[in-house]
Structure formats: C-alpha cells, structure tokens
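A reminder from the course coordinator: this example appears on the midterm review sheet, so study it carefully.

Given structure:
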C-alpha cells in the first residue's frame, strides 16, 4: 500500500486501486479526486438499487403505506377556502389511513384474537339462549356479578353488541384485504416477470461459467429448461427472466377467503340453528314438530317452517356392558333400532342409531345421547279398578344407572271415602340391587341383573291445575300428605318385579310389573352451514400451508459474448424471503443447463523451454542491465 499527501490532507489507495479518503483536502473551490470517485460510486449504487428493486418488485401483494398520519393535508393555503381544502384533505387522508389499518394483516390477526378471546365468556358463563334456568340461578346467587354481567352482555355473548362489532370488523377487514390483493395478483399473473438487473452478482444466489455455445443457443436452452421446471419464463433482452411460486399468494388468498366462508357459515348457523331433546320409551314415537320436544332452543331467525318433516319410532334399545376388568360397566353395545319416515307420507324404513353415528334426514341429524329404564307400574284405587298403567321413565344419577323419577296419577282416582284426589309416588330405581343389608340403594351394574323399585306415596293435590309449568320427573309435595302405615311411620317399600305395595286405609295399591322397558334420549339438531364451515376450515389449512411453505422466487439467465468471443453465462435467483432452498434450486438449474452448455476449456499458456546450454551459474547478472521481474 502506498500513500501520497496533498496539502494538509491525505488519501490512501489500496492494492485494487480503490481510493479511500482519510482526510480533508484543502482548497477554496472544486472537489478532490476522492470526492468525485465517491460520488460516482454512490450514483452507481443508487442505480443498481433501483434496478434490483424493479427485479424484486411485486413478489408480494401486501399493500405498502405511502403516508403517515398528520401529513395528509399538506400545506394549508391562507383564507377560508384554504382551510376547507386542507380539512377535506385531512379527513380523506385519515379515512384512507384508517381503512388501510383496518384491512392490514396485523389488524385482522388482532381482531381474530379478540374474537377468540370474546368467545371464552360464552363457554364459562351460562347463556340465556342455551339455558335460561341456569342464567336465572346465577343471577340469584351472584347479586354483584349478575347485574354487571347483564350490562356487559355476558349472558348472551354471541348476540351482544361488542361481539357483533368485532365480528363485523373482522369480516370487513378480510373483505377489504382480499379484494385489492386479488386484483393485484390477477395483474401479476397477466404480466411477465421483470427483466434481469444490470449486475446479477448483487443477488443472493449467483453462479457463472464460460461456454463455447452461442448466446442465442444458451438462452433457448435456458428458456426450454425453465419452462420444463414449471417456471413462467420469457426472453428479456440478453437474458431469460423466469418466475415461480405463485401458489404462495394463491394459498394466502385461499386462506383469507376460507376465513370469510367460515365466518359466514358460523353466523348462518347461529341465526338459523335449532336443537331439541326428546326422551322416547320403547314402542313410542316422535314427529319433528315443536310441541313434541321435551326441550327446544333455536337461533333468532329460526322459524317453525324450517323444521325438516320426518318422524320415527323407537323399536328397541340394546345395551351390553363389560362384566369384568377395570372397564367393568363400560358400554360395549349402545344401539337404538328405529323405524323412520321422511315427510308426512314417507315409507317406513328401519335403521340403527348409535353414538357418533346419527341418523341424517335432510338438514337434520338425530343423535343418540342417553339411555335409561322405564319400569311399568299399575295403580288401582280402593275398589281394585286400574286408574293408571304406564311405563315411567327414570333419570340416571350415575354410570350404573341408579335412577330416580316421579309417578303422578292426576285423573280418575278416588280415595276410600269416594273423594277425588291425586296420587304421587317418589320413585328410586336400581337395575342391579346389592341386596338387603348390603349397602345403600345404589346400583352395582347398569344391566337389569337385580331390578328393585323403591317407592314412597303421597295423596292430595299435585299442583298441576295451577297453570304453572312442572318438571315431570320431580314431585311437588307442598299440597300433599304422605301415606303412613298402621304404626304411624312413613309408608315406604322396595318392590321386585311383580310385587305390590298396598296403600293404607283401603286407599288402593301400586304394582311393579314384570315388564321393564328401556328408553333412549335423542337430540335432533339442525345446523345450516356446518358443511360450509368444514370446507372453509379444510381450505384454510391448505391455504395457510401453501402460504408458509411455498416460496415466491425469480431466476435470470444471461448469456453474452465475452471479449474473446467465448459466451459468458450468468445465473442468479431472488426470493421473497431468504431461504436455503433458493441457492440449492439455482444450483440444480445451473447443473442442468451446464450439461447443455458445458464449460469452455481454459486458454493454453505456452511455457518456454529452458536453453539446454544455459545453466544457473551462467545466467546474466543483474549488474549487466537485465531487470529482474
């Protein structure tokens, strides 16, 4: 390295000839050679950056921010007209800025997170649309939180103002994001990949070699090769420009469209859904009308006309259970055999409904959700006349089908004095009794191995004539008196099938018949849009996978004739994001093109052979004027 001084400043020149300014040159005018060279380098670098920017443009359809808040109005002219013009520009600018923020990916993700966060209270807090009784109970027991939750809309989360606002904003954000990006992407598909930058060496993946094949031949081979590898390629000057990976943006758009489909399907399903429960005893039937349901809830836009017309009968329920081992009592067979008819006059068809294998009729699905026993009882008055004979469903309390229920005789009964009364019996049923003196009244196994029915009787008024709704499985004894035996003790009895409990003072009797029926609980759901939601979820997964694992990249192949007439081949690649796959792919393409345009041999260098008569001792000394190199 050499150093020269000019005035009070200095400039160092490296071995490569590139000047580096190490001081300030003095003078009253003009610039030094270093300043001029640095200016040329900056100009060239800026030109290269512009060329590289053009080559890397439109690798994404994401919008770019062109203005910052506070700069929309620009310079305000004096006077009222200037103020109005400035205000209009500010308002329009702020509106555009807000729209760009709303339709950005960042805000869409925030809204999606808020939507998921807002759905949490709907799962933890009782909802009025699902169970109004639990909501009333919660408000009664939580005097402080109840009114607060009511004001915040936490008892009806999915129809609340704040949840609807998040939902609508997310919907608008996705629409505003998809539409412009779709048009931009369509424009990219219709356009050609940009031409090659001036200096391909500046790109992250680059290779070059010399070949004896002509430039035109190399470009034709490169164009053919790139098209075979599914690149969109065309000739641009002395280079071939190619691009691949459009499925990345396609997957991104599919993901956003799938989210919109899911949102629409979810909203449609919530507005028009219906869900009802029905307990059916063997031999009984059901018609899909509102009055037939034990419990029914629906969306705000649902109407009775939306119910799918069908009916079915429960022919038989079959349940078998594990007898031994750690899974003792676990169901092995859980099947309801039914006969169903579609429409009002449809032909009867037989099928079976099992857990997770519902009956599908139109938009409705019939699920098997529960099971229990319905012992048949017969009630007679004091004269021996049958006033009640019916299978009474009992509701299970545990996995071994320990059950309880109520037997209500509302009409037709008269006591020993001939006075009309109502009877009620609190019932407790176990399909497998442990035996007297062997424990409490709890079932030991869910099958009918040793059925026992425990009863206690009441007489008086059941309260059903008051007009207030009652639970058919519970007994209201507020206006009733309990039967007592001759000793004054409460009348209770455990009955085996075929046994009878006599009521005191000639009040009649109740018999536990040998016929024990089973019942099945069905849930009939109608959820429109569920298939669309599933399709949207699957499309979203594939779209997201495509946008994450497919890389948008461009490749350029330049072939020009060198100064010695040999073709110089340059290949370079540029991706939307840094990836180790891009250099690997470029290497594979270069290897294939190299087979078609192999490297040219290096020019031969002729080495002069030494003179046999000349030896080292006889060499001409430097003192005789020969300059040593």
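Designed residues:
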């Amino acid at each position: 390295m050499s150093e020269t001084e000019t005035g009070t400043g200095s400039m160092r020149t490296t071995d490569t000839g590139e000047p580096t300014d190490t001081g300030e040159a003095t003078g009253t005018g003009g610039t030094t050679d270093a300043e001029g060279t640095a200016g040329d380098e900056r100009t060239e670098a800026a030109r290269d950056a512009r060329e590289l920017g053009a080559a890397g443009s439109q690798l994404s359809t994401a919008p770019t921010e062109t203005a910052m808040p506070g700069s929309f109005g620009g310079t305000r002219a004096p006077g009222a007209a200037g103020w109005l013009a400035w205000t209009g520009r500010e308002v329009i600018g702020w509106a555009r800025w807000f729209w760009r923020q709303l339709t950005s990916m960042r805000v869409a993700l925030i809204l999606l997170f808020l939507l998921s966060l807002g759905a949490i209270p709907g799962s933890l807090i009782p909802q009025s649309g699902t169970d109004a009784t639990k909501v009333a109970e919660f408000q009664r027991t939580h005097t402080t939180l109840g009114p607060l939750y009511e004001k915040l809309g936490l008892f009806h989360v999915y129809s609340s103002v704040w949840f609807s606002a998040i939902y609508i904003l997310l919907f608008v954000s996705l629409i505003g994001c998809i539409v412009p990006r779709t048009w931009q992407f369509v424009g990219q598909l219709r356009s050609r990949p940009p031409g090659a930058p001036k200096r391909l060496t500046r790109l992250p993946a680059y290779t070059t070699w010399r070949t004896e094949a002509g430039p035109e031949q190399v470009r034709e081979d490169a164009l053919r090769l790139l098209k075979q590898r599914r690149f969109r390629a065309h000739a641009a000057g002395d280079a071939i420009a190619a691009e691949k990976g459009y499925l990345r943006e396609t997957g991104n758009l599919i993901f956003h469209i799938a989210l919109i489909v899911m949102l629409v399907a979810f909203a449609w399903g919530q507005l028009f859904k219906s869900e009802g429960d029905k307990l059916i005893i063997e031999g009984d039937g059901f018609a899909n009308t509102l009055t037939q349901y034990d419990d029914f809830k629906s969306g705000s836009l649902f109407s009775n006309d939306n119910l799918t017309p069908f009916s079915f009968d429960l022919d038989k329920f079959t349940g078998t259970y594990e007898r031994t081992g750690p899974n003792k009592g676990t169901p092995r067979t859980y099947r309801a055999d039914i006969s169903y008819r579609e429409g009002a006059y449809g032909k009867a068809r037989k099928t079976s409904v099992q857990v997770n294998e519902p009956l599908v009729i139109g938009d409705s699905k019939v699920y098997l959700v529960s099971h229990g026993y319905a012992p048949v009882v017969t009630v007679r008055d004091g004269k021996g006349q049958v006033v009640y004979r019916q299978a009474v469903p009992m509701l299970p309390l545990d996995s071994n089908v320990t059950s309880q229920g109520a037997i209500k005789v509302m009409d037709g009964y008269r006591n020993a004095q001939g006075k009309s009364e109502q009877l009620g019996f609190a019932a407790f049923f176990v399909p497998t009794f442990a035996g007297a003196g062997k424990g409490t009244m709890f079932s030991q196994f869910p099958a009918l191995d040793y059925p026992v029915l425990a009863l206690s009787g009441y007489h008086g008024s059941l309260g059903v004539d008051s007009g207030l709704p009652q639970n058919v499985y519970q007994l209201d004894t507020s206006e009733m008196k309990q039967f007592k035996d001759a000793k004054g003790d409460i009348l209770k009895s455990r009955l085996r099938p075929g046994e009878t409990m006599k009521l005191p003072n000639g009040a009649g009797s109740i018999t536990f018949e040998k016929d024990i029926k089973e019942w099945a609980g069905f849930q009939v759901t109608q959820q429109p849009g569920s298939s669309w939601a599933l399709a949207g979820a699957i499309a979203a997964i594939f779209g997201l996978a495509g946008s994450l694992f497919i890389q948008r990249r461009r490749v350029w192949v330049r072939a020009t004739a060198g100064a010695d007439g040999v073709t110089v081949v340059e290949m370079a690649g540029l991706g939307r994001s840094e990836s180790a796959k891009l250099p690997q792919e470029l290497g594979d393409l270069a290897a294939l093109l190299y087979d078609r345009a192999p490297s040219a041999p290096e020019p031969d260098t002729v080495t002069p052979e030494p003179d046999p008569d000349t030896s080292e001792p006889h060499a001409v000394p430097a003192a005789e004027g020969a300059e040593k190199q």
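Residues 1-38, 613-629 have pLDDT under 50 and may be disordered. DSSP finds ten helices and 25 strands in the chain.
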